[in-house]
Amino acid sequence: MPAPVASDDRLLTIGEVARRSGLTASALRFYDREGVLVPADVDALTGYRRYAVAQVRAARLLASLRRVGMPLAEVALVLDEDARGATGAAADVVTAHEQRLVDGLADARREIVRTLVLLAERDAVGAAACRVTVRAGELATALAAVRFAVAPGEPVAGAPDGTDLSVLTGVLLEVCGDEVRCVATDRYRLAVGWAPVLEPTAVLTADLSDEPVAAVVPLGWADRVAAACVDAEPDSHVVLELAPGRAGVTVDGELVATPVLRGSFPDYRSIVSTDPAREPVDAGGLSALLPVERETVGLVVRDGSVQVADRDGAAAGVVDVLVDPEFLHEALAVAGPRPTLVLDGPRRPLAVRGDGAGFSVLMPVAPEGLGA
């Protein structure tokens, strides 16, 4: 950048400009040689550089732009545009560089995920892996059907029974023959969703007709996948891959990958595969009747439908089951407009089914837990 004609006739030494701008004297000499910030005067005998007062602004801009990694040619362009008063054009150059930084950060995050996946693979040699195709809308629905049952907060370790519960802060994904299952539980409730498999595009190390291929994924990753599937066309195909130490979903050509959570997910099949002793009953309209502010609520089956017991009836034990009303409200919310319940007794889990791609199970509350 050529030296400007300053309205202030004073000239500053290189040391003064360095102190005012944050650039070192050696850096100012370098930028002079590169033609980016040329001093207003150079003594022919001593070689001492003198700068116009107006050049302090340019030096400050130069220091700021270099700190964020702007290439020297673009820095020179910004300084030239600013010197001639075209601040809008200078700002456009800065904004374009900012966008490159944002894009680069996204790329770096993806590379970090891939690196973590590679690191996790060492501990999973020989584990089963598979790749299947499902519809975006059905996978989004299956993930939404189980989210409410994920254990909240930070991973919990050292439970009273000695079990590490960190794995419950994620979602279990299973490829079981002709469907992908999503499972979540916080030990008080359990939810299962599923999406039909359109085709097994690749079976890497597992026969899908045998044992399921499973992985527990972080909730944040499941949320990102669900959001990407919602943004895609409902019938568009997405590819789910479960491999040792990692999981990935490709939506609209974009891979969303994650390392899996360590730990053993509870065996949910023993709960959901039991044949109920009673027929399902209609639970339509039940959600609006639930007193969610109470700790527990009693349910009574009458004439093929479920009713909420009053406090006197619940206290007297004239109920079929006691449950947490807030938990039940969340389960009904994902069950769709025509939910049904299966009540097998006061000490048996309560099953909630509906029109959606899944169902949930709530553990009953002991009678002594009855709230006022």
From TrEMBL:
Keyword DNA-binding in annotation: yes
Domain of life where this protein originates: Bacteria
Keywords: DNA-binding
GO molecular function term, any single one: DNA-directed DNA polymerase activity
GO CC field: DNA polymerase III complex
GO annotation (BP), single: DNA replication
Domain HTH merR-type as annotated: residue spans: 11-81
SUPFAM superfamilies, A to Z: DNA clamp (SSF55979), Putative DNA-binding domain (SSF46955)
Coiled-coil intervals: none
InterPro entries named among the record's database cross-references: DNA-bd_dom_put_sf, DNA_clamp_sf, DNA_polIII_beta_cen, MerR-type_HTH_dom, MerR_fam
Protein name as it appears in the record: HTH merR-type domain-containing protein
Organism: Terrabacter aerolatus
